[in-house]
Design brief:
Pfam families: HNH_3
Helix content: 25-40%
Distance between the termini: 86 Å
Radius of gyration: 29 Å
CATH class of the largest domain: Alpha Beta
Number of helices: 6
InterPro entries: His-Me_finger_sf, HNH_nuc
Largest sheet: 4 strands, antiparallel
CATH architecture of the largest domain: Alpha-Beta Complex
Number of domains: 2
Order of helices and strands: EEEEEEEEEHEEHHHHH
Protein name: HNH nuclease domain-containing protein
């Protein structure tokens, strides 16, 4: 089938789309066809259909208004409609229509596939849509500071709370950095090389105190 050829949108009789992302409203323009067996069917007449202009959302996705089952109009994601029209319905509930190249404006069927939430997140990371480290708008530490935290903690000379005070952040931030729950580009979880003199001194003081 040519990319320019239209097919009916699943669940929206009288509305058509093609692989190029063009959408037509042919709800009021239908042919009545009598088959040789005597069966009568009606189908959209593309020549009389009216083009519909998809709306570009701020997040880069296109939507198109279609009537819902209750008769109310709703804006549906164009790439999801195309994925369903050309690849069939989502195999499981909760699946995403994912873009292989990360370009939300490239809604050709060859660029779309049904993926799990994990697939969708992996795509976001691969295409640079998830900000990590100091690139994150709410980051309070640079990548160099995070690496220094990991280096100091690995010596066994510092408690997490001491590093939190030193760098002006909460202990939870330090914990996530040294356990590689954040700044994963800086390496894996930290394994301490030893207790260190400061840690031993703290233990000795705790034992000898009244």
């Amino acid at each position: 089938m040519s990319d320019a050829q239209f097919r009916e949108i699943p669940g929206a009789p009288g509305y058509l789309l093609n692989a190029q992302g063009a959408v037509l409203s042919a709800y009021a323009a239908r042919d009545v066809v009598v088959l040789s067996e005597g069966e009568i069917i009606d189908r959209p007449d593309v020549t009389l259909a009216k083009p519909m202009k998809p709306t570009l959302r701020p997040d880069g996705y296109y939507t198109v208004p279609l009537p819902g089952a209750n008769g109310k109009w709703q804006y549906l994601l164009l790439h999801r409609l195309i994925c369903e029209a050309f690849h069939g319905p989502a195999p499981k509930a909760g699946m995403y229509a994912c873009h292989r190249d990360g370009d939300r404006s490239n809604n050709h069927p060859s660029n779309l596939y049904w993926g799990t939430p994990q697939d969708n997140m992996a795509d976001a990371v691969r295409h640079g849509r998830v900000l990590n480290g100091e690139a994150h708008p709410f980051s309070t530490l640079t990548d160099e500071q995070a690496e220094e935290i990991r280096r100091l903690y690995a010596t066994g000379e510092y408690y997490q709370r001491e590093l939190a005070e030193k760098f002006g952040v909460k202990q939870g931030n330090i914990s996530r950095i040294v356990r590689a729950r954040r700044r994963r580009g800086n390496g894996g979880p930290i394994t301490k090389v030893g207790s260190g003199p400061r840690r031993l001194g703290s233990v000795e003081r705790a034992v000898s105190s009244p």
